[in-house]
Amino acid sequence: MQTTTMEKTTLFFEFLDSQKAKTEAGIISLANDGRKDESNILKAKANIYGICKAVYNAALKSNGEEGIAVAFLPAFEKITSQWTKSLEAAKAHNDSHKVMIEESKMAAVAEIVEKFQEIF
């Protein structure tokens, strides 16, 4: 039995929601432990899951169910490429705090891309 695009979308969104919830739990835990800087770094990561859903929905609207499998990753890459540039700039300027934030975001991006490819 073949999985429909909307079933795949549901699976993908369940993954995004689950990862966001786990990340938000980590944010609370770190904040409760008095680790505010680390908590703030995770906030950037948590936002990525929501951004991803927005990009996915826009790509779905523009390309339809038939085209989402090929349209999403390039659309997401347009957004994430800026974060890659920001990470490179932070490394060049030895901005360790910014590096940690951007690496956290890129870790979320890697998880998302891997899961999308697995589902679609």
List the helices and strands and how they pair.
Layout: H1 5-32, H2 36-92, H3 96-119
Short description:
The chain is an all-alpha fold and 120 residues long. It is 91% helix and 0% strand. The longest helix has 57 residues, at 36-92.
Description:
By secondary structure, this protein is an all-alpha fold. It is about 90% helix and about 0% strand. It has helices at about 5-30, 35-90, 95-120. Helix 1 crosses helix 2 (about 35-90) and helix 2 (about 35-90) packs across helix 3 (about 95-120). The model has no long low-confidence stretch (mean pLDDT about 95).
Keywords:
120 residues; flat
Count the beta strands: 0
Largest sheet: number of strands, sense, barrel closure:
none
**Computed Rg:** 16 Å
Shape: flat
Structure class: mainly alpha
Low-confidence stretches: none
Order of helices and strands: HHH
- The share of residues in extended strands comes to under 5%
